[in-house]
Amino acid sequence: MMRNVAILGAGIGAQHLDGYLALPDDFRVHTVCDQDNAKAESLAESAPGCVAATDIEAVIGRDDIDIIDICLPPHLHAPFAIRALQAGHHVVCEKPMAESVVAAHEMIAAARAADRVLIPIFQYRFGHAFAQLQALIDAGLTGKPQVASLETHWNRGADYYAVPWRGTWAHERGGAVLGHAIHIHDLISRLFGDVTAVSAMLDTRVNPIETEDCAALSLRTASGALVSSSITLGAADDRSRLRLVFEHLTVESGTNPYAPGQGTWTFTARDPAHQARIDTVVQAAPSSHQGYAGQFRQLALQLDGQPHRNVSAESGLQSLELVAAIYQSNRERREVGLPLAPDDPYCRNWQPS
Ligand SMILES: NC(=O)c1ccc[n+]([C@@H]2O[C@H](COP(=O)([O-])OP(=O)(O)OC[C@H]3O[C@@H](n4cnc5c(N)ncnc54)[C@H](O)[C@@H]3O)[C@@H](O)[C@H]2O)c1
To answer: Hey, what domains does the chain have and what are their CATH numbers?
Structure first.
């Protein structure tokens, strides 16, 4: 079934538009809305029949829109998502889903009350290598997760922080932990189980910003596995890497920073006698749409009531609980257990006082 989409925000919204255009049987981008009219018009021109708008409230008030797709700065996600859900729209929301754990709970409650779908964007989950690894897990060839090392080593400088909301607690609501490494932490939660404990050291060492741009994290997951996550925005180039050690299999990702699942991964059996079987499963893994188009295809299946692998709103919430626990661990200089108690003050606000 065809559904009409309005994209709010014409920055990363351009990549969302490309994702919808790759699925012409599922979606039509009806409106691009940005307070900067020139940006809205320029992006709207790239989709057939798409119109530009500058007033979000007017767009939310329309009854010919099925999906509101929020690509605005983080402090605007929860307020506009809740308004859109209450107006009867499904909502797609860029990461971070909300500015706090409490705000994410409020979004989920609004979606339930309106009986509408709310999905956070974690498009890194959609790539061929993840389909290969999932096939190995489904075939029982990995064994239990043991350890992993994660790298989010990117390069961000003055140009990037010239956009006024970035690097500020008031608008971005966090730094590299919230804005950049949130993707790789979502991936490890999905592959190794939810994070149950974290010890964090954060610092601002690269740019003159309020929020953190470097981190060293130790995590334990529900499977008992131990994970190290190294984060910086001061690397010479942009690379993300995962090295995942399972009981029977060691997995090494490529280094594609923004689509790690689209690179070539290696899958090495601990017992060489099992390598041929692993290679067979990897080669037979299904291919499908990747990145944003991959997630939007799952959204179409979800809205049609079909089996799907879309990201749940609860995954968005959990990613924010981990962020809250990381900030708490760093500030209180101690290991923090997850999930956080609902009345934990970091669930309401993790910003420094
Ligand atoms: N999933 C990813 O890989 C990924 C990548 C980049 C950004 N993001 C996320 O996407 C969101 C947007 O980031 P961005 O880089 O596109 O930012 P951006 O600043 O480039 O774009 C945001 C746009 O929103 C518009 N805007 C702001 N307030 C508005 C308002 N009240 N009404 C109408 N328009 C308004 C701005 O004019 C701007 O064009 C952030 O949450 C960011 O974390 C996600």
So the answer is: 3-121 (3.40.50.720), 124-303 (3.30.360.10)
